[in-house]
Amino acid sequence: MINDIDILPVGIRDREEVIAYVLKTREHLFPMLNHQVIPRDLRDFSSTYVHTDVGAFLQARTKQGKLIGTIGMMAYDNRFPYFSFTGSKIVEVARLYVEPAYRKSGLGTALVQRLKTIGKQQGVELLYLHTHPFLEGAYEFWLKQGFDLVLACEESGFETLHMTLDKTKVITTDTFTSFMENR
After folding, report:
1. Which residues pair with 7 in a beta bridge?
2. What letters, b where the CB count within 10 A reaches 16 and e where it falls short, cover 50-64?
3. Which of 64, 143, 152, 161 has the maximum number of C-beta atoms within 10 A of its C-beta?
């Protein structure tokens, strides 16, 4: 099944379809969010994922052209105050979506591996991501990809699991201690 799938960067002609797919999938997985607000990375897709030193957005398609999965990475913007990372080229992995019929086929792993390869070519020093326990199988999937749990905390009302590919590059800050004491 995986041999009949193409994984390639999102091009200009695919961009609108891919963004619509991501928004629809996000709405399904996160029905509690306000979907009238389009996330910054999707609003500024080109500058976030395409025209940047560190970033990429990949799509998976069947040989017939059906879009069945996505994954992206963007420069990490230090939006979480609980930790910082050593290194200058840090990316956040985001928007890994795989159609249910293709889950457990190796497609998710193939998307992650391709993203890691691009990251290496771009000189990325650390891959960071966050996920949530209510996303069935997500935490276990990321562990299998080599990511380690750095921190579990509540973020905007959701239990959030922060993970990196190299735990040695994480520095916890005093803000985290303060945050935990005030919970």
Report:
1. 60
2. eeeebbbbbbbbeee
3. 161
Q: CB neighbours (10 Å) of residue 118?
A: 17
Sheet with strand 90-98: strands edge to edge:
5-9, 55-62, 67-75, 90-98, 126-131, 158-164, 148-155
Give the other-Cβ count within 10 Å of 14's Cβ. 17
The answer to whether 105 and 90 have CB atoms below 8 angstroms apart is no
Supply the pLDDT for residue 81: 82
Which tens digits make up the pLDDT trace of 23-56? Answer: 999 999 999 999 999 999 999 999 999 999 999 9
Tokens of 132: 């949530």
Q: DSSP code of 7?
A: E
Structural domains in the chain? Answer: 2-181 (3.40.630.30)
The confidence score (pLDDT) of residue 79 equals 87
Determine phi and psi for 161, rounding to 5 degrees: -110, 115
**Can you tell me the distance from the alpha carbon of 50 to that of 61, in angstroms, rounded to the nearest whole number?**
19
First-residue to last-residue Cα distance in the chain: 47
CA-angle at 166, arms to 160 and 171, nearest 5°: 70
CA-CA distance, 58 to 96, in Å (whole number)?
9
What is the pLDDT confidence band of residue 139, given thresholds at 50, 70 and 90?
very high
pLDDT at 183: 43
